[in-house]
Amino acid sequence: MAKTKKSAPKSAGSDLLENPEVLAEQLSRTEEFLEKNKNVVFGIGGFIAVIIAGYILFNYYTSSQNEAAQREMFQAVYYFEADSLGKALNGDGNSYGFLEIIEEFPLTEAANLSQFYTGNIYLKLGDFEGAIRYFNEFSSSDYLVQGRAYSLIGDAYAELGQYGDAISSYEKAISYYPNKEFTPVYLTKAAVVYEADGQLDEALRCYKQILDDYPQSAEQRDAKKHKARIEGIL
Fold it and tell me: How many Å apart are CA 199 and CA 205, to the nearest integer?
């Protein structure tokens, strides 16, 4: 005797499509819910709309601010490269300097980059604490620039005789995206400060790392010389 196929059970969605009464009942429930909770529904909708509008306006504002800051920054960078550090920092009466860009255009990439330039200027002027402050405010996804910022912080700490902090900053630079162009320089700086701090083993480690990992670098010749000298002392 042949088995009769059982029809598959209808889903709730199929009922809604095929049965007008079920559909009408569901719509009625939805309308009733919306009527009872319309303040909450409208409140949530309004809140979401405010967030979206705020996000769009914020992006537009920061974009326009960054464009204006970039125009101002052009002259400041020119003064920096010409070694007119005072004008680069404070402006010339017509164009903004880096400090004014930081103050007038916060949250822009131009202001962020101005922190880096300002740190450099303070380092050149011998204001090492000021240099550290501005370098610490700077942040970049560019591995070369960020690594250099860590290294320059180390320079400032070394000038202040704060060898522990200098070493910590140099080690950040060394470990931040190691590369053949700059990492040997950072290792050399770290080795010098390690030796000044009496940590000859660590200085020797840095020189060995240059020779092992960066044998083609410009620093390898001095690294070989200082490695032999420290080994003689130890």
Answer: 10
Per the confidence metrics, is the pTM higher than 0.85? no
Distances (CA, A) of 65 to 62, 102, 114, 139: 5, 12, 14, 19
> How far are the Cα atoms of 3, 11, 168, 189, 212 from residue 155, in angstroms, in the given order?
88, 72, 11, 8, 25
Low-confidence ranges of the chain (pLDDT < 70): 1-36, 38-65
Give the chain's domains with CATH numbers.
Answer: 40-139 (no CATH), 147-234 (1.25.40.10)
CA–CA separation, 92 and 196 (whole Å): 41
How far CA 218 is from CA of 85, 214, 222, in Å, comes to 30, 9, 8
pLDDT tens-place string over residues 179-219: 999 999 999 999 999 999 999 999 999 999 999 999 999 99
